[in-house]
Design goal:
There is one protein chain. The protein contains 13 helices and 5 strands. With 329 residues, it is mainly alpha-helical. It has 2 domains: 212 residues, Rossmann fold, CATH 3.40.50; 84 residues, Tyrosyl-Transfer RNA Synthetase, CATH 1.10.240. The protein has a 3-stranded parallel β-sheet. Strands 4-5 form a two-stranded parallel ribbon.
């Protein structure tokens, strides 16, 4: 089996954009690959970090992933900063990565515009750390959205640069694109993001979820109840396509197009289907949070496993670079 690596920042509670856009796919892929999933807390430091909330955000993210179906036996879920090899390999990769490659990264340009008062070196170096994350475990496939493809291509180039200079060491990983398109927020204007305040959390109360859905943006053509609409232009219909059974989805498409059903009716059906998906996740989440010690012990055990693998990679790298290792496996 090939090695799969992916990561997610510890933003706290997962939302349906995370779930349908990525995590649900990881749950499926863990049966096809040797899977590593990393809570990338070092990446989170680039923009802003509150040390008081970071530990809880890391824990909540890990519990959320397990609640969504990440298998404790099949997948190695761990915290990035607990494995020193990530930072070690990043510095080594910095010595073979051309500066111009980093400066042309689209995400660096976008983030630099968004955070003009905090354009730190980490923001520029973010893709190198990402490459180290993947290649530390000789990752071969990386499930990502389209916005991360450029970073994966850079990871491939960094592997080439190192291999050419020091000998064959790292695989050229492949981006495994998700079939799910970008999931828009409840406002229908921007990608679903906690920072934008346009999300539905996986463990939010049902009442709060319905409150958000009831006022969420729909097809702009449907001003009155009897106005026919175009489902493909409706943000709520885009959510239906993620979760609603095909037969029911066809009925909704027909009903919206002919004004046979109203937007509130459409939202009620979505709410029903969404709760059927989220209720088991919510129940498992609460069961796991009731046993925090077990979760922390599992994360610590996985970090030890990853540290051993990281040491093997770093030892191989140092020997090829003519550096004296300070330890042996």
């Amino acid at each position: 089996m090939k090695v799969l690596f992916t990561g997610i920042q510890p933003t706290g509670d997962l939302h349906i954009g995370n779930y349908f856009g990525a995590v649900r796919n990881w749950v499926r892929l863990q049966h096809e690959y040797i899977s590593y999933i990393c809570v990338v807390d070092l990446h989170a430091l680039v923009i802003f970090n509150d040390p008081k909330t970071m530990p809880q955000r890391i824990f909540d993210m890990a519990v959320g992933l397990y609640a969504c179906g990440i298998d404790m036996e099949k997948t190695t879920l761990f915290v990035q900063s607990e494995v020193p090899g990530h930072a070690d390999l990043t510095w080594i990769f910095n010595t073979v990565t051309p500066l111009g490659e980093l400066e042309r990264m689209t995400q660096f340009k976008d983030k630099a515009q968004q955070h003009r008062k905090n354009v730190n070196a980490g923001l520029l170096d973010y893709p190198v750390l990402q490459a180290a994350d993947i290649l530390l475990y000789k990752g071969e496939v990386v499930p990502v959205g389209e916005d991360q493809v450029q970073h994966i291509e850079l990871t491939r180039e960094i592997a080439r640069y190192f291999n050419k200079r020091y000998g064959s060491t790292f695989p050229e990983c492949e981006a495994l694109l998700t079939e799910t398109p970008r999931i828009m927020g409840l406002d229908g204007d921007q990608k679903m993001s906690k920072s934008k305040g346009n999300t539905i959390g996986l463990i939010e109360d049902k009442e709060e979820i319905w409150k958000k859905l009831s006022v969420a943006k729909t097809d702009p053509a449907r001003i009155r109840r009897n106005d026919p609409g175009t489902p493909e232009k409706c943000n709520i219909y885009s959510y239906h396509k993620l979760i609603t059974p095909e037969t029911e989805l066809a009925e909704i498409h027909q009903g919206c197009s002919t004004a046979a059903i109203g937007c509130i009716d459409c939202k009620k059906i979505l709410f029903k289907n969404l709760m059927a998906e989220l209720d088991p996740i919510r129940n498992k989440y609460h069961a796991l949070t009731a046993k925090p010690k077990e979760v922390h012990e599992l994360l610590a055990e996985n970090a030890k496993k990853c540290t051993l693998q990281a040491k093997k990679t770093i030892l191989e790298v140092k020997e090829k670079m003519g550096l004296k290792p300070v330890w042996k496996i």
